[in-house]
Every structure is written in C-alpha cells, then in structure tokens.
Specification:
RNA-binding; Eukaryotic translation initiation factor 5A; mainly beta; hypusine; protein biosynthesis; OB fold (Dihydrolipoamide Acetyltransferase, E2P); translation elongation factor activity
Length: about 140
C-alpha cells in the first residue's frame, strides 16, 4: 500500500455557515440564502400544485449586509440553504484614538473596532460626544 501524505482540514460541529431546510418550512422574517447571499425573508407565496403535483414557493429576501433585494422560486419539497445568523448587541462605552470600546451583555469588552472613516463614523462620533447612549449589533 502507498503511504498517503497530505494536509487535511477538519471542522468542529456547527462550523458550517449554512444548513439545509425544506422550502415549505421557511417563514417570513426567517433567513435563507438567495443567489448565494444571506437574506432575511420579507415576502413568501406558495402556488397551487402543478401538473406534476409540486407546489412552488416564491421567496423575496433582503441581503442582511447590503440591503439588496433577491428573489427565487423553488419547489416546496426541495431544500434551500439557511445561513447561521448570530446576533449580538454591544454598548458603546468609550472612543479612544478612533477605536471603540464596546461591551456585550455578559460584560465582555471588545476594543478592536475602529470608528469608520465615513458618514456613519461621523454620526457615531457626534452622538457619542453628545453623551447619547446607543447599542451596536453584530
């Protein structure tokens, strides 16, 4: 037998960024991958069964990162990829040298995010200087 050398990567349980779910089980305000984009479902409709006995599901979603709109149609019995979406809230505590000091609900600190150099960054700085309290989502 030949000696097999190679580099193999392994992943922990839950390492996948998506999981399969039947189209008929998807719901409005849930998430789905549309055209390889993670989207929040904003509209869904199901057609009557066709001559082959399959119902079609029309899904409209908004990309959770860009806000772009995507649509797709799939058979109700087919699977679609659903992204693993994790939401975490942070409270802004301080801004030092353009880096934000954020704290999550469990009290863990995060100080590796720089204030963006755009209109959003200007808004964050302005609101922070006025003493407003606000949260960030991850």
């Amino acid at each position: 037998m030949a000696d097999l050398d190679g580099d193999f990567e392994s992943a922990e349980s839950g390492a996948s960024t998506t999981y399969p779910q039947q189209c008929s089980a998807l719901r409005k305000n849930g998430h789905v991958m549309l055209k390889n984009h993670p989207c929040k479902i904003v509209e869904m409709s199901t057609s009557e069964t066709d001559k082959h006995g399959h119902a079609k599901v029309h899904i409209v979603g908004i990309d959770i990162f860009t806000g772009n709109k995507y649509e797709d149609v799939c058979l109700s019995t087919h699977n679609m990829d659903v992204p693993n979406v994790d939401r975490k809230d942070y409270q802004l505590n301080n801004i030092d040298d353009s880096y934000m000091s954020l704290m999550d609900e469990s009290g863990d600190q995060r100080e590796d995010l720089k204030v963006p150099n755009n209109d959003l960054g200007k808004d964050i700085m302005s609101r922070f200087e006025k003493g407003e309290t606000f949260n960030f989502e991850k």
